[in-house]
Amino acid sequence: MKKLGLCCLVVLLGVSCNLKEKEKASVIITYFDLAGYFKKEAIRLSKENPSLNKTVFINGKEEQKNINIKNWEQEFKSFIDADINKASWKGSFNIAKSGGQTTYTSHSDKIPVKKLEVSLENNRLTSIKVYITNVNDLYTSQDSLSYYPDSVYKIKKTQHIKLMATRQYSITGKFK
Question: What is the mean pLDDT of the chain?
């Protein structure tokens, strides 16, 4: 009887894993694939292992180091999390193209990503900028994320929690 229960459990776990993988595979990319782009960049940069001059600025205090990033996917987590291809957001972004730049904007209060700008030059990505705003009764936060391949990335965040001082931080990574 125990063997039968164990077999059923193994089968259920296998089916559950397959369903999750099918859900991931069924995500339809409507807009620029921000998450996919940064996951590929993480793989590429993990192989190349470039040196960075990384500066962290928190509420007026700055720290600077020359480092090699061990986990690029974690380093790009803010960019990956800002992906606008969520099923519930489909149709929520206006798309404007001008020259080599494509801008995706949303004015929905329910969507924190307000703008994504993707710039190309000669079919080569030259920059990505993301603007995020979160507002509720307790706090307001504004993030700006910028990425220039093989040059620099910057994450800026300003957060104000009611009855507390505004906090600001930024992370800048310059490729050497």
Answer: 87
d(CA 8, CA 136): 45
Contact 89, 99 (CB under 8 A): no
Is the overall model pTM greater than 0.85, yes or no? no
Judge whether 42 and 72 are in contact, CB under 8 Å.
yes
SS3 state of residue 92 = coil
Q: Three-state SS for 91?
A: coil
What are the residue ranges in the chain where pLDDT is below 70? 1-27
pLDDT, one tens digit per residue, over 99-112 is: 999 999 999 989 99
Separation between Cα atoms, residue 89 and residue 40, nearest integer Å: 23
Which two three-digit tokens encode residue 101? 């730049």
**Residue 91 CB partners (closer than 8 Å, separation 6+):** 30
CA neighbor of 133 nearest in space, from 158, 153, 155, 168: 158
169 and 55 in contact (C-beta within 8 Å)?
no
| Ramachandran region, residue 145 (left: φ > 0; alpha: ψ -120 to 50; beta: rest) | beta
Please give the Cα distance from 172 to 149 (Å, whole number).
13
